[in-house]
Amino acid sequence: MKKSAFLATALFTAAVSAQAGDLFVSINSGSVMTQGAGLVIASTAVEQKANVRILLCDAGGDIALTGKEMPTLKPKNVTPQQLLQGLIKNGAKVEVCALYLPNTGHKSTDLLTGVTAASPADIAAYLLKPAVQTLAF
After folding, report:
1. In angstroms, rounded to a whole number, what is the distance separating the alpha carbons of residues 26 and 28?
2. What residue range is the signal peptide (predicted)?
3. Of 8, 9, 92, 118, which sits 20 to 30 A from 17 (CA to CA)?
């Protein structure tokens, strides 16, 4: 009896983990509301135990710059950068696209702690995994 209860618990845990899955969120927009929408969805997915990976490019990459001034978004009065920092704190992997730093004149030292430059090969391999869900903002 104990063995079957353990097996049922293990199968349930595996099913819940598989259900949460992997989420890839790409944010390219300079619109604060669009950035916020993507980050709120990503945050909600992390709360639901998904593995979240975020790629920031073009104006979206500016969210990751240290000291970036941004307006707050209602109803929680947080900036996209604060949402991004919360995601990093909760385990999301955050990267700027490979083109961002060399084309904006910024350096990796200008990025928030926890944000790195993406490798196109790593991103491609990640996106080719069968269970990855993608969102673009």
Report:
1. 6
2. 1-20
3. 118
Taking the C-alpha atoms of residue 96 and residue 118, their distance in angstroms, rounded to an integer, is 6
Question: Which residue type, as a one-letter code, is found at position 121?
Answer: A
CB 42 within 8 A of CB 34: no
Q: At what angle do helices 32-47 and 80-89 cross, to 10 degrees?
A: 20
Length, in residues, of the chain: 137
**CATH fold of 21-136, please?**
Hypothetical Protein Ychn; Chain: A, (3.40.1260)
Structure tokens at 69: 């001034």
Give the pLDDT score at 77. 97
- The one-letter amino acid code at 87 reads L
Q: Which DSSP string do the residues of 50-98 spell out, in sequence order?
A: -EEEEEE-GGGGGGGBTT-----BTTTTB-HHHHHHHHHHTT-EEEE-T
pLDDT, residue 19, reads: 59
pLDDT digits (tens, 9 = 90+) for 94-113: 999 999 999 999 999 999 99
Torsion from C-alpha of 57, 95, 32, 74, nearest 10 degrees: 170
